Amino acid sequence: MSKLLICDPVDASAIDEMRAAGIEVDVRDDISQEALSSIIGGYDGIVVRSRTKVGAALIDRATSLKVIIRGGVGLDTIDVAHAKSKGISVQNTPAANSNAVVELALGMMLTLARHVTRADAGMKAGKWEKKALEGTEIAGKTLGVVGYGRIGQMLGEKARLLGMTIVAYDPFVEHPDIVSLDALLAASDYISVHVPLNKETADLLDAAAFAKMKPGVILIQASRGGTVNETALYEALVSGKVAGAGLDVFTEEPPKSEAVLKLAALPQVVATPHIGAATAEALERVGGEIVTLAKAALA
Ligand code: NAD
Fold this sequence. Notes:
CATH superfamily of the largest domain: NAD(P)-binding Rossmann-like Domain
CATH architecture of the largest domain: 3-Layer(aba) Sandwich
Number of domains: 2
Number of strands: 11
CATH topology of the largest domain: Rossmann fold
Radius of gyration: 21 Å
Strand content: 15-25%
Largest sheet: 6 strands, parallel
Bound molecules: nicotinamide-adenine-dinucleotide
C-alpha cells in the first residue's frame, strides 16, 4: 500500500476519499521541517501547501518519494528541478484558489476606499469619526492588474462588473487590456499584483515604479512576498504617494523583522496573514484536486 504524508492542512473529506481509494494517509499537518526531514524517507507521496518548504536537502532524504502534491499554485517553495532530477513528479492545483484570492483583493480595495478598518477601530474606541472618514468609490476608477493570468484576469472581469476600467501588464499574455508597465503605473488608481515570484518579478514594483504611479494610488499585494519591494512601499505610504495598501503576503511569513512589522502596522495598511486561499470553498476545491492527483500517482 502506498504511503502519503499530509504536511499542511487539507480538507477532511479529501483525506477520507484517499483512504477509501486504498492509500495509507498519515496526517501531520503542523509538522516541523526537522521532523519532516527525519520521516520523509518512509513515504511515497507528500502533500504540502505554502508553509512546508521542499528544498534539495529534504528531497535527498526522500528515498521512496514518487510525487510531491502542492495544494495551491506557487511552486516557489519547492525545488522542482531537483525533484525532477530524482524522478519525483511535482503536481499542483492551479485554478482551485483563484476566486478566493480575487474576492480578498476586491475586499481589500473596498475596505481601503471606505476606510473600513479605521472606522471600525474608532468605533471600538468609543469614537464617532464620521467627518474624517469620507471615502471614495471604486466605480469609475482604473484598476491596473500586474500579471494577467488566472487570478489577474478573474479580478479584471469582476472589477469591470463593479464599474472599473481595467488595464493590465503581462509580457506573456495577449489580451485587449494589456498595456506597458509604465502606462499601467501612470493610469491606475488601484494596482493589484498577481505575478509569480521569480528573478524577473523580484522587486518588480520598486522605488522607480512607485515614482511613476499616480499620487494617491492604492496597492494590493496578494501574490508573493518580494514582488513588491517592502522598503519602497513603506516610504511611498509614509510620503502619501501611495494612499493605502492591502497586503496578504510578505517577504517573511510570519514577519519578524522591524522593516516588515512597521509596514503592517501603518494605519493606511490592511494586512492579513496570507489568507488569500483560505476559504472553505477553496479548501474543498483544492482537496478534490489533491484526491485526483494522489489517486493517479499512488492508488
Ligand atoms: P498564473 O500563472 O495563472 O498567472 C501569473 C501571471 O503572471 C502569468 O500570466 C504570467 O505570464 C505573468 N507573469 C510572469 N512573469 C511576469 C512578469 N515579469 N511581469 C508581468 N507578468 C508576469 O498564476 P495565478 O494562479 O494567477 O497566481 C498569481 C500569483 O498569486 C502567484 O504568485 C501565486 O503564487 C499567488 N497566489 C497567492 C495566494 C494567496 O494566498 N495570497 C493564493 C493563490 C495564488
